[in-house]
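stage 2 :: seqdesign
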């Protein structure tokens, strides 16, 4: 199971994605989708360094973390919408936790 956790808000926080879906080892579309969204969020933040500061990055197989500070509400909203879409389609393989995320977008 993949767990995506968002803590903080749209101006300062942490996006963490851990685990493996195990949907179809070697051809895992669930892992690929979650990874693509996570990497796209990081790439957007790095491309918009005038608006957002990436404070920490850790990216290993089954373990992704970005600590951010600044205005990334648009990118974060897109990332969460995509992750929630995957969670809705594959609820046995992905869990999104935003309980401690304050929406200040």
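stage 2 :: out
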């Amino acid at each position: 199971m993949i767990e995506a956790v968002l803590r903080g808000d749209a101006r300062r926080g942490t996006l963490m994605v851990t685990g493996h879906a195990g949907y179809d080892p070697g051809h895992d579309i669930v892992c690929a989708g979650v990874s693509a969204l996570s990497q796209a969020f990081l790439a957007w933040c790095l491309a918009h360094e005038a608006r957002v500061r990436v404070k920490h990055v850790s990216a290993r197989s089954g373990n992704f973390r970005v600590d951010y500070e600044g205005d990334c509400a648009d990118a974060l909203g897109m990332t969460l919408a995509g992750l929630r879409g995957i969670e809705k389609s594959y609820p046995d393989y992905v869990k999104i936790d935003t309980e401690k995320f304050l929406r200040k977008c």
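stage 3 :: structure notes
- The radius of gyration is 13 Å.
- The helical segments are 29-47, 73-89.
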